[in-house]
Specification:
The chain is mainly alpha-helical. The protein has four helices and two strands. The protein has a domain of 50 residues. Strand 1 and strand 2 form a beta hairpin. It is rod-shaped. Keywords: Signal.
Length: 120
């Protein structure tokens, strides 16, 4: 009886060792494939938001919105709306007004509940 327990434990140990070696080699293969496939720019930091999302360049929404809303009559309201649009669209148009087309349809088509344009 004792001999069969030793054999079972030995087989279990070998099985676990085999599983661990397979997992560690898979990670190395994935890292090699990732390095070969991705041609990412090195001049700007990249952030992964979630596992199912693409890599996105991080932009300074606070600073860009502060510049965008500097001449606005209600800068706090402008900053809040601009921040929301910046986070969602990853873009803030240059200047203090106009140029909304440069950020594309995400920025120009976003509206409030009253169907007014949301993004300044």
């Amino acid at each position: 009886m004792a001999l069969s327990r030793v054999n079972v434990l030995l087989l279990l140990g070998l099985f676990l060792l085999l599983c661990l070696s397979k997992v560690s080699s898979d990670v190395e293969i994935e890292n090699e494939e990732d390095d070969e496939q991705l041609n990412l720019p090195t001049d700007k930091p990249l952030i992964v938001r979630d596992g199912n999302r693409r890599l996105m360049q991080d932009i300074d929404c606070g600073g860009l919105c502060k510049t965008r809303c500097s001449a606005h009559s209600r800068p706090n309201v402008c900053n809040r709306a601009c921040g929301t649009c910046c986070v969602r669209c990853k873009c803030v148009p240059p200047g203090t007004s106009g140029n909304r087309d440069l950020c594309g349809s995400c920025y120009t088509d976003m509206t409030t509940h009253a169907n007014k344009t949301k993004c300044p």
